[in-house]
Design goal:
Length: about 160
């Protein structure tokens, strides 16, 4: 009460809304695994995701990505295709082949923008593909959609 008296409050189920209309703090903080070998790209993406309220875990190559999935239990993975030690395509294939990780939403972020590369990413098991340089708003919308709905239906 006191200073809040008379101010309209949005109805959000008890979660305060910022100016953009999205919850400031999600009910459950989603854990996102970012797999990126370029330090600057990794740092920028991590800062942006943490500013949006996500918990971020990182891997710098494909082998580390598989270890982080099995030990860190992420809710979603952002995966580069061009990685040292094990390609992003191979990471997708291994995760989809394992029943414990097959349902993990995977969003590929890649500078490889040719249609053949996109098709290979989807064939390997990616749920979404976003070209670098990516639009932050588009990326955040895709993350939220994947977290809300899980994996895409595969025909």
């Amino acid at each position: 009460r006191g200073s809040r008296a008379g101010r309209p409050r949005p109805i959000t189920g008890g979660v305060p809304l910022p100016a953009r209309g999205r919850p400031i703090v999600p009910e459950k903080t989603a854990r996102i695994l970012v797999v990126e070998d370029v330090p600057l790209g990794l740092a920028v993406l991590r800062m942006r995701l943490e500013a949006e309220g996500f918990e971020v875990i990182i891997a710098r190559d494909g082998v580390e990505a598989l270890e982080q999935v099995r030990g860190g239990h992420p809710d979603l993975m952002l995966l580069d295709l061009m990685l040292p030690r094990l390609s992003g395509e191979r990471v997708c294939q291994e995760l989809r082949a394992d029943p414990r990780t097959a349902a993990l939403p995977i969003v590929v972020l890649s500078a490889r923008v040719q249609e053949a590369e996109r098709l290979r990413a989807f064939a390997a098991g990616a749920d979404a593909f976003i070209a670098k340089p990516y639009d932050t708003v588009q990326l955040l919308e895709e993350i939220r959609a994947r977290l809300a709905t899980g994996r895409r239906a595969v025909a």
